[in-house]
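Bit of a strange request maybe. I'm writing a small parser for structure token strings and I need a real example to test against, not something I typed by hand. Could someone generate the tokens for this chain?
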Amino acid sequence: MRLVTLFTAMALGLAACGSSQGPITLASPTVPETYQARMDTGPDGEPLQIPAVRAAYLTERNQRQQVAYNGTEAPGTIVVDPYARVLYHVQPGGQAMRYGVAVGRAGTGYAGTATIARKATWPSWRPTDNMIRTQPDLYAQFSDGLSGGMHNPLGSRALYLYEGGRDTYYRIHGTMDPSSIGKATSAGCIRMFNQDVMDLFDQVENGTTVVVRSQAESVRMEGPMSETPEGYVVPAGQAPATAAAAASMPAQVTDPYAVTTVSTPASAPVVTTMSPVESAVQ
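Reply from user aminoacidic:
Good idea to test on real output. This should exercise your parser:
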């Protein structure tokens, strides 16, 4: 029965958009130590291995990296930019750790200043009442929720944002679909590679301030963005990858958690495969 539930959840597709930019090149053909497989303690105290992130998913903008930060937020603040699809953890000295994120529809439905009021390891997930009401064939089977674990679309960690003591229903969380990071998806809030959200989770406390940028703030701070055929965003006007760089990419990327199978060259079709849904959490 669990397999039926898992595959049903995975069949709920995550949409990504495309435009006229060229393909994204990989930052490195190897997987950095940060994104290697690691062991964790599962929801019932069992050992649980987090799979390594495939090198094909680690574009330059997706990998965590220390960058100069030109915002005015105090060190320790988390800044989410759903439009540039990055998350900053502000550091002292005008620096920040930048992470790539995936953004669902709900990820652009909130802007403002919130506070992390709750943190959860291996969080449970439940579709909203509205999702169950409008798409009962898809969501009714999950009305009692899914417990945390590798079958859960929220991944390894979740940070719950509140404003004025009220739940914003805005979450920062992991994912079972590492291929989606850097892209727009059909549901959910802000997702990160499991390795990234696990480390961020350990670095922040309840009460941490989270600033979520509006689209106007994003353009002011990051500049306008364009979307590539693969669904990633890059600064508008950035030169597309050369044909040689595109040719150096793997001919095909497949993964048990992948949202798509990506073929090269860039003109080749992109075949949609199964992926888990990301949405509200209980």
